[in-house]
C-alpha cells in the first residue's frame, strides 16, 4: 500500500497494518516540512522562532482537552487509567509541572511574555482552526479512530532529538534549559505510542476499521503539517501576517 492511495482492498495482518501506518509517517510527518527544516537548521530569525513557539503552545495546551474527551468515552477502568496518565503528563499533578507549563517556559526562554502566549491573542487563525479540528475529531469519531490519531507519537522521538540538537547548534540564544520541555517526551511518547499501536492492531478487525485507522493518522499528520504551512506563509514567505496575529520585532 502506498500513501498515494490509501484505499484498502483486503484485510491486513496486524504487522502489515503497522507497516502501513509507519509508511504514512515516513511520507507525511511534519519533519519533512520546509519550516521544520529551517527551524532545526538554524535558519530562522528570533522572531520566526518566537512565532513557532507561540503557535505551537496552542497545540500543546489543547492536548489535555482532547485526551479528557476520550477518557470520558473509554469503556473500562484499565483504558481510562492508561489515557488519564496523558492528562497528568501534560497538565501536571499540582506539584510537578506538566508539558503545558514546560512549553510556557520554552516560550519565555525564546523571549515571549508568558501571559501573552497563554492568552493565545497572537495566534494565527489557521493554527486555531487546525488544532480545534483535531480536538473535535477525537471528541466526535470512534474510539478506534481517536486512538489512531495519536500515532504521530510513533515518529516524535526522532524529531525531538533532531529539534533539540539542531536548535542548540543553530541559535546561540537558546539553551538546554529552554528546551527542557522535550526531555520527558523522549520516554513519554514511546510509552504512549506503544500502547496506542497495540490497541489499534488488536481492535481494527475489519477492512473498514483498518481504513479508518489509516485515515485517522493521515488526518493527524495533516493537522501538524498545516500548522507549519501557516507559519511559513505568515513569517517566511510571502510574509502574510493576518490581522491581530503576532508581529515579530524588527
Question: Which value, in Å, is the CA radius of gyration?
Answer: 18 Å
Structural class: mainly alpha
- Pattern of helices and strands: HHHHHHHHHHH
Q: State the major sheet.
A: none
Could you give the count of β-strands? 0
Low-confidence stretches: 1-5
How helical, in percent, are the residues? 55-70%
Q: First CA to last CA: what distance?
A: 48 Å
Gross morphology is: globular
Q: How many DSSP helices? A: 11
Mean pLDDT over the residues? 94
Strand content: under 5%
Plain-language structure description:
With 250 residues, this protein is mainly α. Helices cover 68% and strands 0% of the residues. It has helices spanning 14-28, 34-40, 46-71, 77-91, 99-109, 114-119, 125-140, 143-149, 156-170, 182-203, 207-235.
Task: Kindly list the characteristics that best describe this protein.
mainly alpha, 68% helix
Amino acid at each position: 500500500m502506498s500513501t498515494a492511495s490509501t484505499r484498502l482492498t483486503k484485510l491486513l495482518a496486524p504487522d502489515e497494518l503497522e507497516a502501513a501506518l509507519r509508511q504514512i509517517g515516513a511520507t507525511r510527518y511534519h519533519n519533512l516540512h520546509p519550516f521544520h527544516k529551517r527551524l532545526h537548521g538554524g535558519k530562522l530569525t528570533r522572531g520566526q522562532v518566537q512565532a513557532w513557539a507561540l503557535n505551537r503552545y496552542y497545540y500543546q495546551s489543547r492536548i489535555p482537552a482532547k485526551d479528557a474527551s476520550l477518557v470520558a468515552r473509554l469503556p473500562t477502568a484499565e483504558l481510562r487509567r492508561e489515557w488519564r496518565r496523558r492528562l497528568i503528563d501534560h497538565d501536571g499533578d499540582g506539584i510537578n509541572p506538566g508539558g503545558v507549563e514546560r512549553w510556557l517556559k520554552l516560550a519565555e526562554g525564546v523571549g515571549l511574555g508568558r501571559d501573552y502566549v497563554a492568552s493565545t491573542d497572537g495566534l494565527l487563525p489557521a493554527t486555531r482552526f487546525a488544532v480545534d479540528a483535531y480536538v473535535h475529531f477525537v471528541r466526535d469519531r470512534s474510539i478506534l479512530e481517536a486512538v489512531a490519531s495519536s500515532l504521530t507519537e510513533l515518529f516524535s522521538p526522532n524529531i525531538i532529538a533532531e529539534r533539540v540538537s539542531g536548535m542548540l547548534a543553530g541559535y546561540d540564544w537558546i539553551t538546554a534549559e529552554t528546551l527542557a520541555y522535550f526531555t520527558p517526551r523522549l520516554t513519554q511518547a514511546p510509552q504512549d505510542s506503544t500502547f496506542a499501536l497495540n490497541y489499534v492492531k488488536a481492535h481494527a478487525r475489519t477492512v473498514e476499521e483498518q481504513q479508518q485507522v489509516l485515515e485517522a493518522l493521515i488526518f493527524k499528520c495533516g493537522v501538524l503539517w498545516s500548522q507549519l504551512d501557516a507559519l511559513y506563509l505568515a513569517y517566511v514567505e510571502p510574509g502574510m501576517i493576518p490581522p491581530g496575529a503576532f508581529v515579530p520585532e524588527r
